[in-house]
Design brief:
heterodimer; A: 168 residues; alpha+beta; 60s Ribosomal Protein L30, Chain: A; four-stranded mixed beta sheet; B: 437 residues; mainly beta; Rossmann fold; Neuraminidase; 2 domains; six-stranded mixed beta sheet; 30 strands
Chain lengths: 168, 437
């Protein structure tokens, strides 16, 4: 577990793992691909757009096995998210909590929910209005990386901040 | 389903010329004690039943008995006597020489009204006697059920335990890529035949479970956007939300009387507690109130207790098994092994709790006594979970992903008889029905 954490804390290694996942694990080119991890570089997206959020801010954070603690690297990402969300207040937000496959279905639904709640609470603590934030857990039902080893599991233990269009 | 199929025991008794079915086991010498640790499968001979549909029916009977692991059907090529009249006494010596302990003869015919008539006789070869004989009438559509009922009767006559072949399984049919998996509710016979879909796959559906009345299931669906527990009437397709809770509800199961659904409700702080909802009065009862993940509740068959999992003991998400009163009283931990425990399910016999355990990088399916003692692992694998009990409490079904996707597997309580359950697509979350009626 220490090794997984070390891997995911190093941005270069994340990029490498993601790239491997795409070529080696038939991961589709979706919003869950390398672009999320900052590989496309800044500048392409219109400021305040959903693409801007995903590409330049980073829409997801990762968790340690069985944990819903917000790691130091994730705190940095969420602080960036909060700043952006406080600037662009037209968006309602749904936080998706996800788990890796190393747990049973029911437990992982609960774990995903805990991760989404922890993420929500962190954003609230950084000034994002609670009324804009909803959470949903997908447990282990929506993996982004689909190989059967730790490089995928660490990507799947995530919370994704999604912008659900204009909020109230 | 009622009245489609009538076991006509008295008619059978007259028609087959036996005095009474119920008195027969008393004189039988043929028996298989399934409570012994190591059961040798009993050699049994099942010649093709007579009549056009006969071989089809006897084939299903044979497959059921074989899959149970308690019977070893003998290769038909070894048979000495050719059965031409299934109602006549066989030449017992001809079956002794191939070491058949039991012989099943039978016939299947069409009635004038279109129904089929199936009859069987079970012979105790070394006792030189008939052990049982019964006759059944059924609609054409229920051919396979007739075979399963005959298999159940043979199983029960010989082991003294109720069978489990005339049952169905609800499960989640899975198709498509792993990161875009389509999940549909489906139902089939316990041997994988007669698959029928109960949802269209547009929304993720998970964890279906049978009602004791066999007519409805409870399950979790994302159809409203927010994951919630629903009830579904199997025959009419009518669906209904269970309860009006603000957050996610999940991990539902029926109470043994079918009047309640017990499930987890997500709290606003991200933890989960266990609630029971009375389906008639709609009143809800909170059973746990902890800042932990309390989930996977399952009632004892008498309804007095609930087994569930919780990580309240701490230790970085170490989920363990707890038992409490059905009113939430006296929750106490019963699992103390080295690993993470989940999905406990109380046996319909009341004596054991089946579970999933993660230990040493593996997922295991096991059983323990209801006080947590006597833990036994029945099956280990890279990824497997979610046991469900056959109604006789002798066999478990679960799902295993050996790479690619999940498939259904059954294992008996000895752990020595593991069988794949055939499904067209990937399949997960099996839930066994009670015996049909």
């Amino acid at each position: 577990m220490g090794r997984i954490a070390a891997l995911t804390r190093n941005p270069a290694m994340i990029a490498l793992v993601a790239a491997l996942a795409i070529t080696g694990c038939a991961s589709k080119k979706t919003p869950n691909s390398a672009a999320d991890l900052g590989l496309n570089g800044a500048g392409a997206a219109t400021p305040g757009s959903a693409q801007d959020f995903t590409v330049n801010i980073g829409d997801r954070i990762f968790f340690d096995t069985d944990s819903s603690s917000i790691r130091a690297d994730a705190q940095t990402t969420l602080a960036r998210q909060a700043q952006w969300l406080n600037q662009y207040r037209q968006y309602a937000i749904v936080i998706e909590g996800h788990a890796d496959e190393r747990g049973t279905r029911e437990y992982n639904l609960a774990l995903g929910a805990r991760r989404a709640a922890a993420t929500r609470d962190f954003l609230i603590s950084k000034g994002v209005s609670a009324g804009r934030l909803k959470t949903i857990s997908y447990g282990k039902e929506r993996p982004v990386a689909v190989c059967d080893d730790i490089s995928c599991w660490s990507q799947n233990r995530r919370a994704v901040t999604t912008l659900s269009g204009a909020g109230s | 389903m009622k009245s489609i199929l009538k076991p006509l025991l008295m008619v059978a008794a007259m028609a087959l010329g036996i005095s009474s079915v119920t008195t027969l086991p008393a004189q039988a010498t043929l028996e298989l004690n399934v409570n012994k640790g190591n059961v040798e499968p009993m050699p049994i001979a099942i010649p093709d039943f007579q009549g056009g549909l006969g071989p089809q029916i006897s084939e299903i009977v044979t497959a059921d008995l074989k899959r149970s692991g308690l019977f070893a059907p003998i290769d038909k090529a070894a048979f000495v006597e050719k059965i031409t009249n299934p109602d006549a006494s066989p030449r017992f010596d001809d079956w002794k020489v191939i070491n058949a302990q039991a012989l099943v003869t039978g016939s299947v015919s069409k009635e004038a009204d279109g129904r089929i008539r199936a009859q069987y006789r079970l012979w105790d070869i070394f006792g030189n006697t008939q052990m049982a004989g019964e006759q059944f009438f059924a609609n054409d559509a229920n051919q396979r059920r007739v075979a399963h009922i005959i298999a159940d009767a043979i199983y029960e006559k010989i082991t003294g335990e109720k069978g489990y072949f005339d049952t169905r399984v609800v499960f989640v049919d899975e198709s498509g890529a792993k990161n875009a998996r389509k999940k549909r509710l489906a139902i089939m016979d316990q041997d994988g035949a007669n698959v029928r879909y109960l949802s269209d796959g547009r929304a993720i559906v998970l964890t279906p479970r049978f009602s004791p009345n066999r007519q409805e299931i409870t399950y979790m669906s994302y159809e409203s956007g927010q994951p919630k527990v629903y009830l579904l009437q199997i025959e009419t397709g009518q669906r209904e939300l269970v309860g009006n809770f603000p957050g996610m509800t999940f991990a539902p199961r029926f109470s043994p009387d079918g009047q309640k659904v017990i499930m987890s409700l997500l709290r606003d702080d991200g933890n989960s507690n266990i609630f029971a909802m009375d389906l008639r009065s709609r009143s809800t009862t909170r059973l746990t109130d902890s800042t932990a993940i309390d989930t996977s509740p399952s009632y004892s068959p008498d309804g007095s207790q609930v087994v569930f999992t919780s990580d309240r003991g701490g230790g970085s998400g170490r989920s363990q098994i707890y038992v409490m009163g059905a009113d939430g009283s006296n929750p106490h931990r019963i699992s103390f092994g080295d690993g993470v425990y989940s999905t406990p399910v109380w046996s319909p016999r009341g004596d054991l709790i089946a579970f999933t355990k993660q230990s040493g990088g593996e997922f295991q399916i096991g059983v323990m006594k209801t006080d947590g003692s006597g833990e036994r692992i029945l099956s280990s694998g890279f990824q497997q979970e979610g046991p469900t009990w056959a109604p006789n409490g002798r066999v478990l079904m679960f799902f295993r992903d050996s790479g690619g996707g999940p498939k259904l597997v059954s294992v008996d309580l000895t752990g020595r008889n593991e069988q794949p359950i055939p499904t067209t697509n990937y399949a997960s979350d099996p839930a066994w029905s009670p015996l049909l009626e």
